[in-house]
Amino acid sequence: MRSMKAKLLSLSGLQSVLLLLMLLMAAAFGVPQAFAISDPTRPSGYAAPAGGADKSGAALKLESVLIARDRRVAVINGKTCRVGDSINGARLVAIHADGAELVREGSRVVLPLLKIQVRK
Fold first, then answer.
1. DSSP string covering 26-94, please?
2. Strand, helix or coil for residue 19
3. What are 47-86's pLDDT values in tens digits?
4. How far apart are CA 52 and CA 39, in angstroms?
5. In which region does residue 106 sit, left (phi positive, over 0), alpha (psi from -120 to 50) or beta (all else)?
6. Where are the domains of the chain?
7. How far are the Cα atoms of 16, 18, 21, 103 from residue 8, in angstroms, in the given order?
8. pTM higher than 0.70 for the full model?
9. Is the separation of the CB atoms in 61 and 52 below 8 Å?
């Protein structure tokens, strides 16, 4: 019976040492980095476009386009837009398969779609 108690004590001591080591490693390598979650759907080699804000400071991001026989729709900043609609002070003037064109204060703004290469 005595040897069983000794084994239990040594096991809890080993657990304490392992816990201490894990805490020291987390402190040494940084806890936020240890638990950082990356987007598994992000294409490899993706880098966010630089300068995503237009002249007024409001960022415009083209998320998708839908082109059908009877309609053309662009999703910009989460809002579904058709030609003639306004978003963040810019008017949508054209929707293409590879992007959209807007006009703000007389200046043309082109929003391209992110080009994704699919590996085979």
1. HHHH-HHHHT----TTSPTT--PPS--B-TTS-B--EEEEEE-SS-EEEEETTEEE-TT-EETTEEEEE
2. helix
3. 665 544 444 446 889 999 999 999 999 999 999 999 999 9
4. 20
5. left
6. 2-34, 62-112
7. 12, 15, 20, 74
8. no
9. yes
